Q: What sequence folds into this?
Protein backbone atom coordinates (compact mmCIF):
# COMPACT_ATOMS: atom_id res chain seq x y z
CA UNK A 1 0.00 0.00 0.00
CA UNK A 2 1.06 3.61 -0.52
CA UNK A 3 1.32 4.34 3.21
CA UNK A 4 3.65 1.35 3.63
CA UNK A 5 6.06 2.92 1.15
CA UNK A 6 6.14 6.11 3.16
CA UNK A 7 6.74 4.39 6.47
CA UNK A 8 9.36 2.00 5.12
CA UNK A 9 11.44 4.44 3.10
CA UNK A 10 11.04 7.46 5.39
CA UNK A 11 12.75 9.82 2.93
CA UNK A 12 14.15 13.27 3.80
CA UNK A 13 10.98 14.77 2.35
CA UNK A 14 8.87 12.80 4.83
CA UNK A 15 11.30 13.77 7.61
CA UNK A 16 10.61 17.44 6.92
CA UNK A 17 6.86 16.86 6.80
CA UNK A 18 6.54 15.44 10.27
CA UNK A 19 5.11 18.40 12.17
CA UNK A 20 2.82 21.31 11.43
CA UNK A 21 5.95 23.45 11.60
CA UNK A 22 8.11 21.52 9.12
CA UNK A 23 7.30 22.57 5.62
CA UNK A 24 10.27 23.92 3.70
CA UNK A 25 11.03 20.88 1.53
CA UNK A 26 7.79 18.97 2.09
CA UNK A 27 5.80 21.92 0.80
CA UNK A 28 7.51 21.64 -2.57
CA UNK A 29 6.85 17.90 -2.63
CA UNK A 30 3.20 18.39 -1.73
CA UNK A 31 2.76 21.13 -4.29
CA UNK A 32 4.47 19.14 -7.04
CA UNK A 33 2.76 15.82 -6.38
CA UNK A 34 -0.50 16.35 -4.54
CA UNK A 35 -1.96 19.53 -5.92
CA UNK A 36 -1.16 18.75 -9.54
CA UNK A 37 -3.05 15.46 -9.19
CA UNK A 38 -6.00 16.87 -7.29
CA UNK A 39 -6.71 20.45 -8.33
CA UNK A 40 -9.45 19.33 -10.70
CA UNK A 41 -11.07 16.92 -8.28
CA UNK A 42 -11.55 18.71 -4.98
CA UNK A 43 -13.59 21.76 -4.06
CA UNK A 44 -13.84 24.04 -1.06
CA UNK A 45 -16.94 23.56 1.07
CA UNK A 46 -18.49 25.12 4.16
CA UNK A 47 -17.69 23.91 7.65
CA UNK A 48 -20.90 22.10 8.61
CA UNK A 49 -19.98 22.27 12.31
CA UNK A 50 -19.77 26.08 12.37
CA UNK A 51 -23.50 26.75 12.79
CA UNK A 52 -23.89 23.98 15.37
CA UNK A 53 -21.74 25.91 17.85
CA UNK A 54 -24.24 28.76 18.06
CA UNK A 55 -27.08 26.29 18.66
CA UNK A 56 -25.39 24.75 21.71
CA UNK A 57 -27.40 25.72 24.82
CA UNK A 58 -24.54 26.53 27.21
CA UNK A 59 -21.00 27.93 27.24
CA UNK A 60 -19.56 24.52 28.13
CA UNK A 61 -21.38 22.84 25.24
CA UNK A 62 -20.33 25.60 22.84
CA UNK A 63 -16.72 24.96 23.90
CA UNK A 64 -17.03 21.26 23.14
CA UNK A 65 -18.78 21.93 19.83
CA UNK A 66 -15.95 24.30 18.83
CA UNK A 67 -13.26 21.71 19.56
CA UNK A 68 -15.16 19.00 17.70
CA UNK A 69 -15.55 21.42 14.76
CA UNK A 70 -11.79 21.04 14.16
CA UNK A 71 -12.34 17.53 12.75
CA UNK A 72 -12.69 16.92 9.03
CA UNK A 73 -10.84 16.97 5.71
CA UNK A 74 -8.75 20.00 4.78
CA UNK A 75 -6.44 21.71 2.37
CA UNK A 76 -3.98 23.37 4.78
CA UNK A 77 -1.60 26.26 4.20
CA UNK A 78 1.27 26.88 6.62
CA UNK A 79 2.82 30.36 6.67
CA UNK A 80 5.54 31.66 9.00
CA UNK A 81 7.27 35.02 8.78
CA UNK A 82 9.52 36.90 11.18
CA UNK A 83 8.38 40.34 12.30
CA UNK A 84 9.99 42.34 15.15
CA UNK A 85 13.79 42.08 15.43
CA UNK A 86 14.86 41.91 19.10
CA UNK A 87 18.59 41.18 18.83
CA UNK A 88 21.26 43.57 17.62
CA UNK A 89 22.52 42.92 14.07
CA UNK A 90 19.92 40.21 13.46
CA UNK A 91 18.61 39.79 9.91
CA UNK A 92 15.19 38.30 9.26
CA UNK A 93 15.10 34.87 7.64
CA UNK A 94 12.90 34.47 4.55
CA UNK A 95 9.23 33.54 5.14
CA UNK A 96 8.28 29.88 4.93
CA UNK A 97 5.09 29.03 3.06
CA UNK A 98 3.71 25.67 2.01
CA UNK A 99 0.55 23.56 1.90
CA UNK A 100 -0.79 20.04 2.15
CA UNK A 101 -3.88 17.85 2.53
CA UNK A 102 -4.79 16.68 6.01
CA UNK A 103 -7.62 14.92 7.77
CA UNK A 104 -8.34 15.42 11.48
CA UNK A 105 -9.94 12.44 13.23
CA UNK A 106 -11.64 12.35 16.65
CA UNK A 107 -10.00 9.44 18.49
CA UNK A 108 -11.39 10.17 21.97
CA UNK A 109 -14.41 12.15 23.15
CA UNK A 110 -15.22 12.11 26.86
CA UNK A 111 -16.52 14.67 29.32
CA UNK A 112 -12.99 15.67 30.33
CA UNK A 113 -10.95 15.08 27.17
CA UNK A 114 -11.19 15.33 23.39
CA UNK A 115 -8.32 13.93 21.32
CA UNK A 116 -7.76 14.75 17.63
CA UNK A 117 -5.30 12.91 15.38
CA UNK A 118 -3.95 14.65 12.24
CA UNK A 119 -2.93 12.57 9.21
CA UNK A 120 -1.37 14.05 6.06
CA UNK A 121 -2.14 12.57 2.63
CA UNK A 122 0.39 13.43 -0.07
CA UNK A 123 0.61 12.59 -3.77
CA UNK A 124 -0.10 9.02 -4.79
CA UNK A 125 -1.96 8.33 -1.55
CA UNK A 126 1.18 8.46 0.61
CA UNK A 127 0.29 9.16 4.24
CA UNK A 128 2.18 10.59 7.18
CA UNK A 129 0.82 10.24 10.70
CA UNK A 130 1.09 13.85 11.83
CA UNK A 131 0.68 15.68 15.13
CA UNK A 132 -1.98 15.09 17.77
CA UNK A 133 -3.88 17.60 19.91
CA UNK A 134 -5.60 16.65 23.16
CA UNK A 135 -8.02 19.03 24.90
CA UNK A 136 -8.53 18.74 28.67
CA UNK A 137 -11.40 20.48 30.46
CA UNK A 138 -10.54 22.20 33.75
CA UNK A 139 -7.19 20.45 34.00
CA UNK A 140 -5.21 20.86 37.22
CA UNK A 141 -1.80 20.14 35.68
CA UNK A 142 -0.03 19.89 32.34
CA UNK A 143 3.39 19.02 30.98
CA UNK A 144 5.74 21.90 30.16
CA UNK A 145 8.95 22.05 28.13
CA UNK A 146 11.52 23.02 30.78
CA UNK A 147 14.91 22.45 29.17
CA UNK A 148 16.66 20.50 26.42
CA UNK A 149 14.57 17.40 25.59
CA UNK A 150 12.87 17.64 28.99
CA UNK A 151 9.17 17.99 29.85
CA UNK A 152 7.88 18.20 33.43
CA UNK A 153 4.40 18.04 34.95
CA UNK A 154 3.48 21.45 36.42
CA UNK A 155 0.40 22.54 38.32
CA UNK A 156 -1.94 24.93 36.53
CA UNK A 157 -2.70 28.10 38.48
CA UNK A 158 -6.04 28.08 40.29
CA UNK A 159 -7.30 31.05 38.26
CA UNK A 160 -6.73 29.07 35.03
CA UNK A 161 -8.88 26.05 35.84
CA UNK A 162 -12.62 26.67 36.09
CA UNK A 163 -14.07 26.95 32.60
CA UNK A 164 -10.61 26.69 30.97
CA UNK A 165 -9.41 24.19 28.37
CA UNK A 166 -5.81 22.97 28.20
CA UNK A 167 -4.57 21.92 24.78
CA UNK A 168 -1.57 19.57 24.70
CA UNK A 169 0.23 18.88 21.44
CA UNK A 170 2.24 15.75 20.68
CA UNK A 171 4.86 14.74 18.15
CA UNK A 172 4.23 12.20 15.41
CA UNK A 173 5.70 9.56 17.74
CA UNK A 174 3.21 10.76 20.39
CA UNK A 175 6.10 12.13 22.45
CA UNK A 176 5.25 15.42 24.22
CA UNK A 177 5.72 18.80 22.58
CA UNK A 178 3.85 21.62 24.37
CA UNK A 179 0.67 22.61 26.23
CA UNK A 180 -1.31 25.83 26.57
CA UNK A 181 -4.28 26.82 28.71
CA UNK A 182 -7.06 29.28 27.87
CA UNK A 183 -10.77 29.93 27.47
CA UNK A 184 -13.04 29.75 24.46
CA UNK A 185 -14.71 33.02 23.48
CA UNK A 186 -17.94 32.77 21.47
CA UNK A 187 -18.83 36.44 21.17
CA UNK A 188 -20.18 37.81 17.87
CA UNK A 189 -20.95 34.32 16.58
CA UNK A 190 -17.28 33.32 16.20
CA UNK A 191 -15.48 30.82 18.45
CA UNK A 192 -11.86 31.53 19.38
CA UNK A 193 -9.58 29.90 21.95
CA UNK A 194 -6.50 31.84 23.09
CA UNK A 195 -3.76 30.21 25.17
CA UNK A 196 -1.49 31.61 27.82
CA UNK A 197 2.16 31.92 26.85
CA UNK A 198 4.12 28.69 27.11
CA UNK A 199 7.36 27.11 25.92
CA UNK A 200 8.00 24.68 23.12
CA UNK A 201 11.16 23.15 21.64
CA UNK A 202 12.89 24.38 18.52
CA UNK A 203 10.49 23.56 15.64
CA UNK A 204 11.48 21.02 13.03
CA UNK A 205 11.19 23.61 10.27
CA UNK A 206 14.12 25.42 11.94
CA UNK A 207 16.54 23.00 13.57
CA UNK A 208 17.57 21.48 10.24
CA UNK A 209 18.68 24.93 9.05
CA UNK A 210 19.83 27.01 12.04
CA UNK A 211 21.12 26.87 15.62
CA UNK A 212 21.03 30.50 16.79
CA UNK A 213 18.12 29.87 19.22
CA UNK A 214 16.77 26.86 21.09
CA UNK A 215 13.19 27.56 22.21
CA UNK A 216 9.96 29.33 21.32
CA UNK A 217 7.79 31.31 23.73
CA UNK A 218 4.33 31.09 22.20
CA UNK A 219 0.72 32.22 22.42
CA UNK A 220 -1.69 30.18 20.28
CA UNK A 221 -5.08 31.16 18.94
CA UNK A 222 -7.56 28.76 17.31
CA UNK A 223 -10.64 30.12 15.53
CA UNK A 224 -13.48 28.11 13.98
CA UNK A 225 -14.55 29.72 10.69
CA UNK A 226 -17.41 29.13 8.22
CA UNK A 227 -14.88 27.45 5.88
CA UNK A 228 -12.83 25.49 8.45
CA UNK A 229 -10.52 26.77 11.18
CA UNK A 230 -7.29 28.66 11.71
CA UNK A 231 -4.27 28.40 14.00
CA UNK A 232 -2.42 31.64 14.70
CA UNK A 233 0.93 31.61 16.52
CA UNK A 234 2.58 34.58 18.23
CA UNK A 235 6.12 33.20 18.54
CA UNK A 236 9.21 34.70 20.17
CA UNK A 237 12.48 32.96 19.30
CA UNK A 238 14.66 32.70 22.36
CA UNK A 239 18.02 31.49 23.64
CA UNK A 240 17.11 29.75 26.89
CA UNK A 241 19.31 28.12 29.53
CA UNK A 242 17.20 25.69 31.53
CA UNK A 243 14.07 27.62 32.49
CA UNK A 244 15.84 30.98 32.30
CA UNK A 245 15.44 33.21 29.25
CA UNK A 246 18.92 34.37 28.20
CA UNK A 247 18.15 36.41 25.07
CA UNK A 248 15.23 37.11 22.74
CA UNK A 249 16.06 37.04 19.03
CA UNK A 250 13.01 37.88 16.93
CA UNK A 251 9.25 37.60 16.90
CA UNK A 252 7.45 35.47 14.34
CA UNK A 253 3.85 35.21 13.18
CA UNK A 254 2.56 31.79 12.17
CA UNK A 255 -0.71 31.28 10.35
CA UNK A 256 -2.07 27.81 9.54
CA UNK A 257 -5.32 27.90 7.55
CA UNK A 258 -7.45 24.74 7.46
CA UNK A 259 -9.93 25.03 4.57
CA UNK A 260 -12.65 22.35 4.42
CA UNK A 261 -12.72 20.47 1.10
CA UNK A 262 -14.64 17.76 -0.68
CA UNK A 263 -13.57 15.41 -3.46
CA UNK A 264 -10.00 14.68 -2.38
CA UNK A 265 -9.24 11.02 -1.63
CA UNK A 266 -8.43 10.69 2.07
CA UNK A 267 -9.24 6.96 2.17
CA UNK A 268 -5.55 5.93 2.59
CA UNK A 269 -5.49 7.88 5.88
CA UNK A 270 -8.57 6.13 7.23
CA UNK A 271 -7.27 2.74 6.07
CA UNK A 272 -3.95 3.38 7.80
CA UNK A 273 -5.59 4.51 11.03
CA UNK A 274 -7.99 1.56 11.10
CA UNK A 275 -5.00 -0.80 10.92
CA UNK A 276 -2.72 1.00 13.39
CA UNK A 277 -5.05 2.72 15.87
CA UNK A 278 -4.63 0.00 18.50
CA UNK A 279 -0.85 0.13 18.11
CA UNK A 280 -0.70 3.89 18.61
CA UNK A 281 -2.99 3.60 21.63
CA UNK A 282 -0.31 1.46 23.29
CA UNK A 283 2.36 3.99 22.35
CA UNK A 284 0.32 6.78 23.95
CA UNK A 285 0.01 4.72 27.13
CA UNK A 286 3.81 4.54 27.35
CA UNK A 287 4.18 8.33 27.38
CA UNK A 288 1.27 8.94 29.76
CA UNK A 289 2.51 6.27 32.19
CA UNK A 290 5.98 7.82 32.28
CA UNK A 291 4.49 11.20 33.14
CA UNK A 292 2.20 9.74 35.80
CA UNK A 293 4.97 7.68 37.37
CA UNK A 294 7.92 10.07 37.28
CA UNK A 295 6.39 13.50 36.74
CA UNK A 296 8.64 14.15 33.76
CA UNK A 297 9.97 12.77 30.47
CA UNK A 298 13.54 13.23 29.27
CA UNK A 299 14.33 12.14 25.72
CA UNK A 300 17.81 10.75 25.20
CA UNK A 301 17.93 11.81 21.53
CA UNK A 302 19.04 14.82 19.51
CA UNK A 303 16.40 17.53 19.20
CA UNK A 304 14.97 15.95 16.05
CA UNK A 305 13.77 12.86 17.94
CA UNK A 306 14.22 10.84 14.77
CA UNK A 307 15.32 7.67 16.54
CA UNK A 308 11.95 7.45 18.29
CA UNK A 309 10.02 8.49 15.19
CA UNK A 310 11.73 5.93 12.94
CA UNK A 311 11.29 3.15 15.48
CA UNK A 312 7.58 3.74 16.02
CA UNK A 313 6.84 4.20 12.33
CA UNK A 314 8.66 0.97 11.50
CA UNK A 315 6.78 -0.89 14.23
CA UNK A 316 3.48 0.53 12.92
CA UNK A 317 4.39 -0.70 9.43
CA UNK A 318 5.16 -4.16 10.79
CA UNK A 319 1.74 -4.12 12.46
CA UNK A 320 0.08 -3.44 9.10
CA UNK A 321 2.08 -6.10 7.29
CA UNK A 322 1.58 -8.83 9.88
CA UNK A 323 -1.86 -7.88 11.15
CA UNK A 324 -0.52 -8.45 14.67
CA UNK A 325 -0.21 -5.67 17.24
CA UNK A 326 3.04 -5.89 19.26
CA UNK A 327 2.66 -6.67 22.93
CA UNK A 328 2.66 -3.65 25.22
CA UNK A 329 5.90 -4.95 26.76
CA UNK A 330 7.59 -5.02 23.33
CA UNK A 331 6.49 -1.46 22.55
CA UNK A 332 7.68 -0.21 25.92
CA UNK A 333 11.01 -2.03 25.56
CA UNK A 334 11.51 -0.30 22.21
CA UNK A 335 10.68 3.20 23.47
CA UNK A 336 12.63 2.97 26.73
CA UNK A 337 15.86 2.99 24.72
CA UNK A 338 15.45 6.74 24.24
CA UNK A 339 13.83 7.82 27.51
CA UNK A 340 15.74 8.65 30.69
CA UNK A 341 13.69 7.99 33.82
CA UNK A 342 14.42 6.98 37.39
CA UNK A 343 12.13 3.96 37.20
CA UNK A 344 12.68 2.38 33.82
CA UNK A 345 12.71 -1.09 35.36
CA UNK A 346 8.97 -0.82 35.99
CA UNK A 347 7.66 -2.48 32.84
CA UNK A 348 3.90 -2.71 32.23
A:
Amino acid sequence: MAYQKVLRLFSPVIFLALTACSHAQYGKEANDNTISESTRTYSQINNSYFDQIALAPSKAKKDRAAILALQGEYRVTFDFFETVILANKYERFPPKETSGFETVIVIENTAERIALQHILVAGGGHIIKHWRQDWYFEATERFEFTEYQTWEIKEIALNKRKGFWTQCVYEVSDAPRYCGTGQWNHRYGVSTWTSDRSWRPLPRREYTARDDYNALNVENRHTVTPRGWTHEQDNTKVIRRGETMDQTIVREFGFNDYQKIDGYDFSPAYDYWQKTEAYWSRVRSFWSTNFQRDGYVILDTPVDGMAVINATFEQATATIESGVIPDTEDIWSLLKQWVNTTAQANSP
